[in-house]
Amino acid sequence: xxxxxxxxxxxxxxxxxxxxxxxxxxxxxxxxxxxxxxxxxxxxxxxxxxxxxxxxxxxxxxxxxxxxxxxxxxxxxxxxxxxxxxxxxxxxxxxxxxxxxxxxxxxxxxxxxxxxxxxxxxxxxxxxxxxxxxxx
Amino acid sequence: xxxxxxxxxxxxxxxxxxxxxxxxxxxxxxxxxxxxxxxxxxxxxxxxxxxxxxxxxxxxxxxxxxxxxxxxxxxxxxxxxxxxxxxxxxxxxxxxxxxxxxxxxxxxxxxxxxxxxxxxxxxxxxxxxxxxxxxxxxxxxxxxxxxxxxxxxxxxxxxxxxxxxxxxxxxxxxxxxxxxxxxxxxxxxxxxxxxxxxxxxxxxxxxxxxxxxxxxxxxxxxxxxxxxxxxxxxxxxxxxxxxxxxxxxxxxxxxxxxxxxxxxxxxxxxxxxxxxxxxxxxxxxxxxxxxxxxxxxxxxxxxxxxxxxx
Lengths: 136, 310
Known about the structure:
The structure holds two protein chains of two kinds. By secondary structure, chain A is mainly α. Chain A contains nine helices and no strands.
């Protein structure tokens, strides 16, 4: 990805180009830690879903969320549908839980001044794995 | 071509990742992102034999023990490796002789042991000590100089090892200890930064070791140390903490039965200091609860280190 492409106005990028650069525009893997911190704090404070995230192994939880945020912002990932399904199968996740996570994701991105069109792209990626996450 | 997975010979194609090769043969390794971030696919090779390209993001202790990410290792024609999957590995460490040169019984619950030994360690680590039953148990090290290990031992009611140490071990005895283990150490990254060190019970021991090392290295950042215990008799480290406050550290000793609330004090201290490096040591429930509160108070996860005792 060249510097020229990365600095194109969002309206001139293809859908794929926009998706591919958000992770990099946020600052890549280095900058992800701060984004993950924010998202993680939000879900810990959200009673609808905190029980999914509130366990003693915080570093492990942080890593899983970093992998998730990397994926939805177009960063490197190779999740298989089977992995997503297996990972969430036993958690009894419903629509409300999924929506609550998406809501916190959007709030986090807004905190980092991500544009609405980028946010829409991120939500689209999250929604693309909804069936696997809800095991349906 | 040789891949031994949990004792079974697995065929593979050059270019497969280790994870793919195992899965192709019908076996399973937990996995997630398959791109080196989530660490679900962690496997263990022999100590010191983790392929370097597959250890990005792992701690120094993990790498030393042979852990690596199976999604990040690419198999080639000449690969020879033996790996285990799963998470519960007991470490059978190399042991070093350690002569008891000092023993101080502080009260019926805490004893300090001074050992002369070649066992290498970094301040903040713990060593494994061999007990009469042949098992090894971890004890935190409060010292910071080569050749000498200072252990702070808390009595575990009904414990096979702590009782023996407190009641039977004597000056001149030769014990057996491992090299230091653990990632809760004073690093370059912490040098001259403000530090918030919080320990409960004998969890103050590794903190004492780390701050001794920090001051020896000329640390200039503000150091705040909080020691918590159920009651005053658990606040056994007065002399060592005084030594550190004379070197410039701010020290608070908090007894729960006198209204001391280490969680509240730690969060308040963090809010005062802001961008500091935080170290938490002690019993697992304490560390878990404290880590959450400090994180929610605004500490970046990467600035928090901890050692949780089981």
